[in-house]
Design goal:
2 domains; 18 strands; alpha/beta; 437 residues; Rossmann fold; 8-stranded mixed beta sheet; 15 helices; globular; 42% helix; 6-stranded parallel beta sheet
């Protein structure tokens, strides 16, 4: 790691993207000013506490954060403006929540305005949030112009979508090729300098910022469609008595085929909301997207398929009793602490709506829920169904002892939505029914 600090960089928004990105800049030798509006999150970070499960070459992100804080080159601030005034470049990673029937850009717009107002001569404002096409032009370039600061002359402005997969952030910030769009050559060159300070995987540039925005949106939409293919294949294979994972393994031996695996649904803020970013763009051109809409509907329906199967089995083996369902894993994907728009949580809610008692365990998810506990033994005791919805290492270790499942009701269903027990012992010998999605 370089001992000098040739770059002073602000990162606005220290969530799933901003925190590891800010630490990657610190690792590369920059002095970092992280701005986080949430006082509780900011306090936790100041104590070296984070619930993220990222690591870099085996070192947990919490340890990296503590080292950064101790170094004197990593500062936590409450305001985007203060972080901007302390730095040479500001990277904005504020997310866009989905409220009601639409996207709420107000937090992002507010952050961009604060940054643009505070940016001095030669400052770079780099937007790295996933945004609907047209956002950078309207909410970044537009504000800069409104303030009377000439883009490419007094202030540089550019867009660089994040493309990382959770759990691989540090590696991919360094090695994943990035896309960079700017409205003028000077901004593009300055942005390349700041991005390449951390990223060594190549930079694809474009003068069409809308193309850069759209490229990230369609990456997410494409994965949503591919997962929908896997979900529909899983239903067809189940009906025919064929192992869907064996079908996928065989098909993927073709060098131009890459089928994804089915699961309990699609969660997080990226994939389920991707179509919300894309549809306004398509509708503005009066273009219909039936394939994309059908795929989204397929994935959105999966949690109900799982919940219905669980309730039906419970009623079949214990007529007249209230169904009791144990759930292992509440995160939106395996080995994650991210419960945003999580299909397992939706499954739990659907089970509750159907009158079931739900006992869920996930040691990595920090949020509390009325149906969440800490002890796997408490969850499975007397349960009619055990649902494996997202993997966590602590739960894998607990399930490694098959005798633990003897606490389930005789004839209970083990519903495996993550191919978790693919090498498990014969559950029939334990008096259990196994269903792998």
């Amino acid at each position: 790691m370089s001992q000098a600090a040739p770059l002073k960089v602000a990162v606005v928004g220290l969530g799933f993207v901003g925190l590891p990105l800010s630490l990657a800049y610190w690792q590369s030798g920059a002095e970092v000013f992280g701005a986080e509006i949430d006082p509780n999150l900011r306090h936790e970070l100041s104590q070296g506490i984070t619930h993220h499960l990222e690591s870099d070459e085996g070192k947990p992100i919490a340890a990296i954060l503590r080292d950064a804080l101790d170094s004197g080159r990593y500062h936590l601030l409450a305001e985007a403006a203060a972080a901007t005034r302390s730095s040479d470049a500001t990277i904005v990673t504020v997310g866009i929540p989905h409220r009601g029937d639409g996207l709420d850009l107000s937090l992002l717009q507010g952050a961009l305005r604060q940054v643009a107002q505070a940016a001095g001569q030669g400052h770079l404002i780099l937007l790295r949030s996933t945004v609907p096409p047209g956002t950078t032009r309207r909410d970044l370039l537009g504000v800069v112009a409104e303030l009377g600061k000439r883009p490419g002359v007094e202030v540089y402005a550019a867009y660089c979508p994040e493309r990382i997969a959770e759990g691989r952030a540090f590696h991919e910030f360094r090695n994943m090729p990035v896309i960079l769009g700017a409205f003028d050559e000077a901004s593009l060159e300055r942005a390349k300098e700041v991005v390449s300070f951390v990223t060594h995987g190549g930079i694809a540039t474009t003068e069409s910022v809308e193309a850069a925005e759209l490229s990230k949106v369609i990456e997410n939409v494409q994965r949503d469609v591919n997962i929908a293919i896997a979900q529909e294949l899983a239903r067809a294979c189940e009906a025919a008595g064929v192992d869907v994972f064996e079908v996928i393994r065989l098909a993927n031996t073709h060098e131009r085929v890459h089928l994804l695996e089915p699961g309990p649904g699609v969660g997080g803020f990226c994939l389920p909301l991707a179509l919300s970013y894309f549809l306004p763009f398509a509708e503005a051109g009066h273009v219909e997207t039936p394939t994309l809409l059908a795929a989204r509907n397929t994935n959105a329906a999966v949690p109900k398929v799982l919940a219905d199967r669980a309730v039906a089995h419970a009623k079949a083996i214990a007529p007249g009793e209230r169904p009791r369902v144990a759930v292992f894993g509440l995160a939106m994907k395996d080995y994650s602490n991210d419960a945003r728009l999580s299909p397992p949580i939706e499954v739990c809610q659907l089970l509750l709506d159907a009158g079931a008692e739900v006992r869920a365990v996930d040691p990595a998810v920090p949020q509390t829920f009325p149906f969440k506990g800490d002890d796997p033994a408490w969850a499975v005791e007397g349960a009619h169904v055990l649902m494996l919805l997202s993997r966590q290492r602590e739960l894998e270790s607990w399930l490694a002892d098959p005798s633990h499942m003897l606490a389930l009701r005789k004839g209970a269903l083990v519903a495996d939505a993550r191919n978790w027990l693919r090498q498990a012992p014969d559950l029939a010998e334990l008096g259990l029914t196994y269903w792998r999605i």
